[in-house]
Design goal:
Blueprint (H helix, E strand, L loop, with lengths): L5 E7 L3 H12 L6 E8 L5 H11 L3 E6 L4 H9 L6 E4 L5 E2 L3 H9 L5 E12 L5 E5 L6 E3 H6 L12 E4 L17 H9 L5 E14 L12 H17 L5 H24 L3 H10 L1 H10 L3 H15 L4 H7 L2
Parallel strand pairs: 1-2, 1-4, 2-3, 6-10
Antiparallel strand pairs: 4-9, 5-10, 6-7, 6-9, 8-10
Helix pairs in contact: 1-2, 6-7, 7-8, 8-9, 8-10, 11-12
């Protein structure tokens, strides 16, 4: 077994109820050579105290504290001090399999052409703890950069937490966009992986994602935070064009439409008609691509009907009858 240092970045904000479980899953890894960086982002509960207690027990843990500035700022603090050959991001309300780091490190360390490894994951219910979804893709292979990045738009997800990266492809300019509340991790990956050579996929589910009923991404109403998800998708599209891959641009266009139309509807239903009109106009090109490529033609017809009704300013109660 190799003994390369692996850096683990964990932003922390008001997760006192979950932090013990998360950190215990990290410090008890079968792979020991870890640099565990906890960044407390101005928590108002006992999160910082818990971080400090763990740091007293485990010298591999470094605790940073900052005034509340958001998860992107916290991750950037961590990136600025990592010294590991590889880096892994974990959300502080989640947990990982005891051998996750060992498995991912062994795979990415096979040769210096491998710059990232993606794995499957399990989603569990916040209240009962029961597994409610297992994502264990059948694909398990080495891919070139573009084909590997394309998997971000599929089962391997646009989230950071089921992926390990070679630190050498991350430079001082590769920081998370602090203006974004949602989608910042997807944009960061698209930017960083431009420098990748090969990416390995494994289907083994090694990460446990906690499904919580709260959170800005779960809200079914328009907000400025939701709008940043649309802004992030526009930035992803601009960034992915530098890959010079028609397939990746197509994926990004389809995702821009998918996210954009969802936020557009929320804006319409909540009476933000200027926002609705802005998004409706900006997704026109992406809309045509989505319509052409979506397999469910009945779904396309329903989507077209809903969007036509919005342009005709139908009452939202009527539109929602068709908006499935």
């Amino acid at each position: 077994m190799s003994n390369n240092l692996v850096s683990i970045i964990i932003p922390v904000y008001n997760v006192a109820s979950y932090l013990d479980e998360c950190l215990n899953s990290v410090i008890n890894q079968t792979y020991n050579n870890l640099e565990i960086i906890l960044i407390d982002d101005g928590s108002t509960d006992d999160s910082l105290e818990i971080c400090n207690l763990f740091a007293k027990k485990d010298k591999r843990i470094k605790v940073l504290h900052q005034d509340n500035a958001g998860v992107s700022s916290a991750r950037n603090r961590g990136l600025n001090i990592i010294t590991g050959k590889y880096v892994l991001f974990i959300d502080s309300d989640d947990k990982i399999e005891s051998n996750m780091v060992e498995i991912l490190e062994r795979i990415i360390d096979r040769n210096d052409k491998i710059d990232a490894v993606f794995c499957g994951y399990k989603e569990f219910d916040d209240i009962s703890g029961k597994i409610i979804k297992v994502v264990s893709p059948v694909k398990s292979k080495k891919l070139n950069r573009d084909n590997g990045v394309s998997e971000i738009f599929g089962e391997y997800s646009t989230m950071l937490w089921n992926k390990m990266f070679r630190s050498s492809i991350i430079d001082s300019t590769d920081l998370f966009d602090v203006t974004l509340r949602i989608g910042e991790d997807e944009l960061w990956m698209i930017d960083v992986l431009k420098k990748a050579d090969s990416i390995i996929l494994i289907g083994t589910p090694l990460y446990y994602y906690r499904n919580r009923i709260t959170g800005v991404t779960k809200e079914k109403k328009y907000s400025n935070a939701k709008m940043t998800d649309f802004e992030s998708q526009k930035k992803v599209l601009d960034s992915i064009k530098e890959y010079d891959s028609e397939k990746l641009v197509l994926y990004a266009q389809e995702r821009l439409y998918y996210i954009g139309q969802d936020i557009m509807k929320l804006a319409y239903y909540d009476g933000y008609f200027d926002i609705y009109q802005k998004i409706d106009s900006e997704i026109e090109e992406a809309r045509k691509i989505w319509y052409e490529n979506h397999a469910n033609k009945l779904g396309v017809l329903r989507r077209k009907l809903v969007e036509k009704m919005m342009r005709m300013k139908f009452p939202k109660i009527v539109i929602k009858m068709f908006d499935k």
